[in-house]
């Protein structure tokens, strides 16, 4: 059976796996983005706090994905829970780092001007600092999403959802007729999803970042 025949014959299952994969990554990125930006906001003003936040999230990223899932399964069980926990933890570093860098890079004179016209600290953060820090934050979100696309495939090890199941089925049956087709279908599906997500982020950037800031 050729690769395209295999894809045509399993189109419904592959689409379902692709939807689950994209949904898991998207939902985990929403959570990771909220947590990452909050951590950045809470730590960027103090050098030691920002460095600690970046170092801590970087340390999490050094844990092999299989090892982290293996540690989580006894605590959360198989399926969605360990997948979501692992993906959120892995997605934090690029977002936290870029949030800290972006917020520290805001021109102090603009913040002082906002303070001079009576803006509260919260208003300055929401209306001046975060909008100006948005380009690097969005870059961090893009990088984290590309990372999670690949890491989410490993979640099949813990019975997680997504295209990783197709890859694992192929790897576990190497030598069989469709083993290579299964691995190739899962891999190409993840690549296509990663490209689609990145295109969406580029569009979001064009819609939310003024031309002068975008450069």
Descriptive overview:
This protein is mainly α and 215 residues long. Helix content is 83%, strand content 0%. It is built from ten helices and no strands. Helix 4 crosses helix 5, helix 6 crosses helix 7 (121-154) and helix 7 runs antiparallel to helix 9 (179-208). The chain is elongated, with a radius of gyration of 20 Å. The mean pLDDT is 91. It is a multi-pass membrane protein. The chain crosses the membrane at residues 24-44, 51-73, 79-96, 137-159, 179-204. InterPro entries: ABC_transp_perm/SBD, MetI-like, MetI-like_sf.
Q: Which helices and strands, and how do they pair?
A:
Elements: H1 3-9, H2 11-43, H3 47-61, H4 65-76, H5 80-104, H6 108-116, H7 121-154, H8 164-172, H9 179-208, H10 211-214
Cα distance spanning the termini = 50 Å
Question: Multimeric state of these chains?
Answer: single chain
Radius of gyration: 20 Å
| Total beta strands | 0
Residues in helix, % = over 70%
Organism: Streptomyces nondiastaticus
InterPro entries: ABC_transp_perm/SBD, MetI-like, MetI-like_sf
Family: Belongs to the binding-protein-dependent transport system permease family.
Pfam families: BPD_transp_1 (PF00528)
């Amino acid at each position: 059976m050729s690769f395209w025949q295999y894809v045509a014959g399993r189109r419904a299952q592959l689409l379902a796996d692709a939807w689950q994969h994209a949904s898991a990554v998207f939902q985990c990125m929403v959570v990771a983005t909220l947590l990452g930006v909050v951590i950045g906001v809470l730590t960027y003003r103090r050098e030691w706090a920002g460095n600690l936040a970046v170092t801590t999230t970087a340390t999490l990223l050094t844990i092999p994905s299989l090892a982290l899932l293996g540690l989580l399964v006894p605590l959360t069980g198989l399926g969605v829970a360990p997948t979501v926990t692992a993906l959120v933890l892995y997605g934090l570093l690029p977002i936290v780092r870029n949030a800290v860098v972006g917020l520290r890079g805001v021109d102090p004179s603009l913040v002082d001007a906002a303070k001079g016209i009576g803006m509260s600290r919260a208003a300055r953060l929401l209306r001046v600092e975060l909008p100006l820090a948005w380009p690097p934050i969005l870059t961090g979100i893009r990088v984290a999403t590309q990372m999670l696309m690949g890491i989410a495939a490993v979640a099949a090890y813990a019975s997680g959802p997504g295209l990783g199941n197709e890859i694992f089925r192929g790897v576990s049956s190497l030598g069989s007729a469709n083993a290579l087709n299964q691995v190739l279908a899962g891999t190409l599906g993840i690549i296509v999803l990663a490209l689609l997500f990145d295109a969406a982020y580029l569009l979001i950037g064009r819609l939310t970042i003024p031309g002068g800031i975008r450069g």
